[in-house]
Amino acid sequence: MTSDTLPRGEVAYQQLFNAIKTGILKPGSRITETEIADMFGISRTPVRDAIRRLESAGLVIHIPRQGAVIKKLDHREIIEMYEMREVLEGTAALHAAQHASDLEIDEMTELNELMLSNKTNAPAAAEANAQFHKTLYRAANNRYLIDAINNLSSVMALLDGTTLYNEERVETAYKEHADIIVQIRSRDGKAANETVRNHIRNSQRVRIRMFR
User: Residues near 143 by Cβ (< 8 Å), separated by ≥ 6?
Assistant: First the structure.
């Protein structure tokens, strides 16, 4: 479905979610139905529904006498988020080693090369990295695992910026991805699980340094 055929509430939700994810709306910012409706040129009713969905997903909180505010993660929440990501993505790699098609493995390889080729362009590198991980999740072939990862990914939209902020970090991630691809291609689920877990731990360390 295109944005022209999606229900208005879904369009409002996607627009508001993307504004949070891209940093247009920052954590800690107060949001009102009127301001968001004016920003996106839509009526207040779908905006109200979108804000409620974001509250349910944990991206927006309601503060007395302030109203709806975009949630700001603290140090402990970031650590917990990455701990859960390590478990889920490690499991995804384990399953991907069993179920990934040659086409999916080739797609991961192409996306990894695309990420490296954009090492001087952090937003483009981050997008290629995100698509690499989404392909890994899809290759796991487990709908409940994918749902759990997607729910966590929604909350991770609250994180500011990308950990792929310099060439050295992109090159490190590229090498880690390459190892994961080799292990999935050779159907070594145990090794892929461990490599992905280490990859996420490295990302967590970079994120914590950024937070400080």
Answer: none
Helix extents (H) in 141-164? 143-155
Residue 2's pLDDT is what?
A: 44
CA Rg, the chain, in Å? Answer: 18
Query: What are the beta bridge partners of residue 202?
Result: none
Note the pLDDT of residue 4. 55
First to last CA, the chain: 41
Residues 6+ apart with CB under 8 A from 67: 30, 31, 32
Half-sphere exposure of 195 (CA within 13 A, CB side): 21
Q: What is the mean pLDDT of residues 48-70?
A: 92
Which residues have C-beta within 8 Å of that of residue 78, sequence separation ≥ 6? 159, 204, 207, 208, 211
Strands ordered across the beta sheet of 67-70: 30-31, 67-70, 60-63
| pTM of the model as a whole | 0.86
Please give the domain boundaries of the chain with CATH numbers for all domains: 8-70 (1.10.10.10), 75-211 (1.20.120.530)
Pick from 171, 194, 62: nearest CA to 119: 171
- Percent of the chain residues past pLDDT 90, beyond the cut: 82
Pick from 124, 105, 103, 104: nearest CA to 114: 124
